[in-house]
Amino acid sequence: MSKVYWPLYEVFVRSKQGLSHRHVGSLHAAMIKWRWRMPAMPTPPQRRLLIWVVKASEIVASQPEDRGEFFDRRKAKSTVIRLSIPCRTAWNICEAAMNNPNPVATYALRLGDNGLVLASVLGAWCGHAPELEIDLALANIGLDLLGQARNFLSYAAELNGCGDEDTLAFGRDERQFSNLLLVEQPNGNFADTIARQFFIDVWHVALFSRLVNSRDAQLAAIALKG
Fold first, then answer.
1. pLDDT for 88
2. What's the average pLDDT block by block, 10 residues per block, for the chain (226 residues)?
3. Which segment of the chain is annotated as a signal peptide (predicted)?
């Protein structure tokens, strides 16, 4: 009797809204055909998991120097799905960033994580806010936070001497982020979101008003712009 070899699939899970997918394991199966059924009782959003299953043969780990292919289809050599997260090079760079003894690099990384996570969480309101004007306002706040995050993460990567803001943003799992716990709290209802944003904004005003006088010229410039 001949052996039957089932294809290998990789499984990724996003455990919380606003976080990236994390590789949790592999499995062999004849086919992937998920049947989603509505539960008898509604499941709270904070308890839901987003599962992504991809055939292993269709995954290629990219290198940092291949960034151009992600943004320009004309440069792409194939239509194979590329993932930056499983890349071992990116993982090593992120490990170096987390263990960097330079306090300025660590500080910039933490501030960048705050903006990155909060921008992602606010983005979940897009298309779901009470009014169109509020929807656009929250999206713009998220874009501003994302811009701040890019500046801080770029500086952290520069101090590390390797990688860039994309490597730090996409090359880590959720346990490697050093953001404030407040920014990753669920959106809840609209009042919850506004209350969270109020506390963050008050903290930002106090932080940046002092950071503009920092002895580090780059941190001062980012704070002045923010």
1. 42
2. 63 72 72 42 52 74 60 48 43 57 88 93 86 87 93 91 82 82 90 93 94 94 88
3. none
**Closest to 151 measured CA to CA, from 193, 120, 108, 186:** 108
Q: CA-CA distance, 121 to 183, in Å (whole number)?
A: 8
Domain with CATH 1.20.1260.10 in the chain: 101-225
Confidence (pLDDT) at 193: 92
Q: Which CATH superfamily is domain 1-85 in?
A: Phenylacetic acid degradation B (3.10.20.520)
At the topology level, CATH places domain 101-225 in: Ferritin (1.20.1260)
Q: What is the pTM of this model?
A: 0.57
Q: Where in the chain is the domain with CATH 3.10.20.520?
A: 1-85
User: What are 160's two structure tokens?
Assistant: 């590390």
**Rounded to whole angstroms, how far apart are CA atoms 192 and 176?**
26
CA distance 13 to 119: 20
Please give the pLDDT value at position 131. Answer: 85
Cα 42 off chain centre by:
27
Rg of the chain over all Cα atoms, to the nearest angstrom? 20
CA distance 185 to 155: 26
